[in-house]
Amino acid sequence: MINFDERARDWDSDPMKVERARVVADAICTALPLPPGTRALEYGCGTGLLSFALQPYLGSITLADTSQGMLDVLAEKIKAAGVMNMFPTRLDLGMDPLPAARYHIIYSLMTLHHIPDTEDILGKFFALLEPGGHLCIADLEKEDGSFHGAQVTDVHHGFDQDVLQSKVAVAGFQKISFSRVYTIHMQGKGFPLFLLTTQKTAAQTVI
Fold first, then answer.
1. What integer pLDDT is reported at residue 1 of this predicted model?
2. Could you tell me the mean pLDDT of each successive run of 10 residues in the chain, 207 residues long?
3. What is the Cα–Cα distance from 69 to 6, expressed in whole angstroms?
4. Which of 15, 97, 124, 136 has the highest count of CB atoms within 10 angstroms of its CB?
5. Hey, where are the domains in the chain?
6. Which residue, among 196, 60, 74, 50, has the nearest Cα to 125 in the 3D structure?
7. Would you tell me which CATH number, out of the four given (3.30.1330.40, 3.40.50.720, 3.40.50.150, 3.40.50.300), belongs to the domain 4-199?
């Protein structure tokens, strides 16, 4: 089990994490239109590195996480920066009721592999999107378990893109695409990250 509360204070001190967030933000901006007034949800936001990189292009951002330690650091960063369109909230979509708000874009970075029930969270993302809204997921390609190591057992070892694409389609999404956007280098190995982009088309509604 990874204790994100304990790691929160030092999270932003890793240049790789900062670069990774910037690269993924650039890829999202390239892949999708982000018109003024776009309402966004980042799920598994951590200290908000990805949302800070996207903040100038979005109307409002709800930043959700289950780690209070991460959210505390995030709140301090928002206050220090004087940012007015970022709103942290503690939310666990695996247990909590769906919020009433709906969003034009939902995105996550290195979060999906920490969520046990992939199908469930994809269905909830679908429900939380406005018709025509987009989902962007950046996460690990399928790996052998060495990314976290044998001591961490409560994670997915990345994702096979064909399997994940099928699950995304079953959740109701259309226009599914993948691109490789980053590679994490550690322990003498490279761990590629994909960016999945998909859409809840305007004709679709939640049943």
1. 46
2. 71 92 98 94 97 97 95 96 97 96 98 96 98 97 90 89 98 97 94 98 59
3. 7
4. 136
5. 4-199
6. 196
7. 3.40.50.150
